[in-house]
Amino acid sequence: MMKIFAGSDHAGLELKNNMIMYLEKSGYQVEDLGTYTNESCDYPDYAHKVAKAVLNNPGSRGLLVCGSGIGISMAANRHPGIRAALCRFTLDADLSRRHNDANVLVLGGRLTGIQLAENIAEKFYATEFEGGRHCGRIAKIEI
Is 135 a residue of the active site? Predict the structure, then answer.
């Protein structure tokens, strides 16, 4: 069973909570690393928590949500070995996994509806990395 570490700021809290319920119903083990309230907070704090947890638990994945998804993905991608993909469509999720071996799914809480977010997550967590020609490209990310 894949473990998923989830985190959000206040703007992503509602979608994160909905996604946790969806992912657990889908058979994933999810650990919520916060935030837990609607009180204003800083998205980098949760990006760093999730990134560190994913890096320290081989085979795990992450889920991050902020208002747009942009800021939290930037913060997460500061960690070598993290490939956080902001996905707006299921095709983004598919390609980010198959071609980029993304290990953290990022969603925009103010921009992505629940049904679309569930479809994106289903594609992201079920899709395998293709390897092959993509391995060299991924290695070039970690300069």
Answer: no
Residue with tokens 């996994």: 97
Q: Catalytic residue, from 48, 66, 79, 87: name it.
A: 66
Cα 54 from Cα 81, distance rounded (Å): 9
Residues in contact with 15: Cβ distance below 8 Å, sequence separation at least 6, in sequence order: 8, 65, 107, 109, 112, 114, 117
Active site residue 10: no
Q: Of all helices (H) and strands (E), which one includes residue 50? A: helix 43-56
What pTM value is reported for the model?
Answer: 0.97
- Give the pair of three-digit tokens for residue 71: 């800021």
Q: Please identify which of the residues 10, 48, 79, 99 carries the catalytic annotation.
A: 99
pLDDT digits (tens, 9 = 90+) for 77-132: 999 999 999 999 999 999 999 999 999 999 999 999 999 999 999 999 999 999 99
Catalogue all structural domains in the chain, each as residue range(s) with its CATH number: 3-141 (3.40.1400.10)
